[in-house]
UniProtKB/TrEMBL annotation:
Keywords: Amino-acid transport, ATP-binding, Cell membrane, Hydrolase, Membrane, Nucleotide-binding, Translocase, Transport. CDD domains: ABC_MetN_methionine_transporter. This is Cell division ATP-binding protein FtsE. One of its GO terms (molecular function) is ATP binding. It is a peripheral membrane protein. Part of the ABC transporter FtsEX involved in cellular division. Important for assembly or stability of the septal ring.
Length: 357
C-alpha cells in the first residue's frame, strides 16, 4: 500500500556557508536512502529519537515534503510523478493526523469534520451522510456542536481522526498523534486507531518516540537513526530480540530491565577462569509456562540467580523477560545456554562477572 524506494531528503542549511571550490550550499541529510513497505491493512510504526528524521519520512509519503531523490508509491500511484491536480486528488486517499490536532478553532466539531468534504465540493446532504457515522465511530455524537476550546485533548484528536477519515482514505498517517496526551487518553486513542484499522481495513503508518505506542498497536516497527532506517521487525520479535544497539536501548529504557548498576560495573566482555555469565532471557509461547529454570538446576546442574523478571503482553503474545546469573562451572553454564536456546528462548549474554567465592 505504501512503498518508499531509496528515498532521500536533504534540506539546505540556512546561512550554511558555501564551499568555495565547488560552490555547494551545506545541507542536512534528514533522510538517507529509506526503503519501506507497508502492506494493505497493516499498522507500521517508525520509532526514533528527536531529530532522527521521523517527521521528514512521514511527510515524504504525502509529499508535504518532496523527496530529493527516490520514489514514493501509495495505493499504486507513484506520488513524485503526479501533476499538482493529481497530487491533490491522491491526497484525498491519504488522511493525516498531528500531535497538536490542527483543528479550526472557529468551527464546531461537525464543521471541522465536514471541512475536507466542503473543499471537495460535496453537497450538504451527502456531507451529513458521511459525517454522522464518523461522529458515531469516534464517540463524538454528543459533542457535535462544541468548539475545539471546549474539548479535551483526547476529544480534539478524535475530531482530527474523524476529519482525516471523512474523505474515505486508504491510508492514515499519524504524526506523533498521542504525544500531547496523558497515558490514559493515549490508550483510548490507540484503541480507536486499532478499531479503525480492523473495521475499515485502513493502512496506518505512524511515527512516534514512545515504545508504548509500538507495543500497543503496531504490527511491524522500523527504527530510524540519523536519517537511516536501521532496523525493521515484527513487533513481537522486536520486543523479544532487537537487532541493533539502538533497539536494545529503546527496549531497556521501556522495560526498565537491566542488571543492577553495581553488577554492570563488574561485567567483563570475555569469560575468564573464574567468571559466570549474566544473561538476558526472552521467552514466549509454551516456554512461558514450562518450568525451565528448575530444569536448568536439575538437568544442567546450574544454579540460577534471578536479578529481574517481568511478563509483558505484546498484543496477543505473552513475553517473559528475565535477567539472571548462571552459576556453575563454565562447561555447565555453556550447556545451560544451549539447553535454553533449544527450548526457543532467546539468550543474550550481557557479560561475565567474577565469582565471589
Ligand atoms: N525544514 C527544514 N530545514 C532544515 N532542516 C530541517 C528541516 N526539517 C527538518 N530538518 C532537520 O532534519 C533532521 C530531521 O528532522 P525531523 O523533524 O524529520 O526529525 P524528527 O525525528 O521528526 O524529530 P522530532 O521528534 O524532534 O520532531 C533534523 O536534523 C532537523 O533539524
Amino acid at each position: 500500500m505504501i512503498t518508499l524506494r531509496n528515498v532521500s531528503k536533504t534540506y539546505p542549511i540556512k546561512g550554511g556557508h558555501k564551499d568555495g571550490a565547488r560552490g555547494h550550499v551545506k545541507v542536512v541529510e534528514a533522510l538517507k536512502n529509506a526503503n519501506l513497505h507497508v502492506p494493505q491493512g497493516s499498522i507500521h510504526g517508525v520509532i526514533g529519537l528527536s531529530g532522527a528524521g521521523k517527521s521528514t519520512l512521514i511527510r515524504c509519503v504525502n509529499l508535504l515534503e518532496r523527496p530529493t531523490s527516490g520514489s514514493v508509491t501509495v495505493d499504486g500511484q507513484e506520488m513524485t510523478r503526479l501533476s499538482s491536480a493529481a497530487l491533490n486528488q491522491a491526497r484525498h486517499r491519504i488522511g493525516m493526523i498531528f500531535q497538536h490536532f490542527n483543528l479550526l478553532t472557529t468551527r464546531n466539531v461537525y464543521d471541522n469534520i465536514a471541512l475536507p468534504l466542503e473543499l471537495m465540493g460535496m453537497k450538504r446532504a451527502a456531507i451529513r451522510e458521511r459525517v454522522m457515522p464518523l461522529l458515531e465511530l469516534t464517540g463524538l455524537t454528543d459533542k457535535i456542536s462544541q468548539y475545539p476550546a471546549q474539548l479535551s485533548g483526547g476529544q480534539k484528536q478524535r475530531v482530527a481522526i474523524a476529519r482525516a477519515l471523512a474523505s474515505e482514505p486508504r491510508v492514515l498517517l499519524c504524526d506523533e498523534a498521542t504525544s500531547a496526551l496523558d497515558p490514559q487518553t493515549t490508550g483510548s486513542i490507540l484503541e480507536l486507531l486499532r478499531d479503525i484499522n480492523q473495521k475499515l481495513g485502513l493502512t496506518i503508518l505512524l511515527i512516534t518516540h514512545e515504545m508504548e505506542v509500538v507495543k500497543s498497536i503496531c504490527h511491524r516497527v522500523s527504527l530510524i537513526s540519523d536519517g537511516e532506517l536501521v532496523e525493521e521487525a515484527d513487533v513481537g520479535d522486536f520486543f523479544t530480540a532487537p537487532g541493533t544497539q539502538l533497539g536494545r536501548e529503546f527496549l531497556n529504557d521501556f522495560l526498565q530491565l537491566e542488571p543492577p548498576k553495581g553488577l554492570v560495573e563488574r561485567l567483563e566482555a570475555e569469560p575468564g577462569e573464574h567468571t559466570h555469565p549474566v544473561v538476558r532471557l526472552a521467552f514466549s509461547g509454551d516456554a512461558v509456562s514450562t518450568p525451565l529454570i528448575s530444569r536448568l538446576a536439575r538437568d544442567c546442574e546450574v544454579d540460577v540467580s534471578i536479578l529481574q523478571a517481568k511478563v509483558e503482553s505484546i498484543q496477543e503474545r505473552t513475553l517473559g523477560l528475565m535477567i539472571a546469573e548462571l552459576l556453575g562451572p563454565a562447561e555447565k553454564t555453556r550447556q545451560a545456554i544451549d539447553f535454553l536456546e533449544s527450548h526457543d528462548l532467546h539468550v543474550e549474554v550481557l557479560g561475565h562477572v567474577q565469582r565471589d567465592d
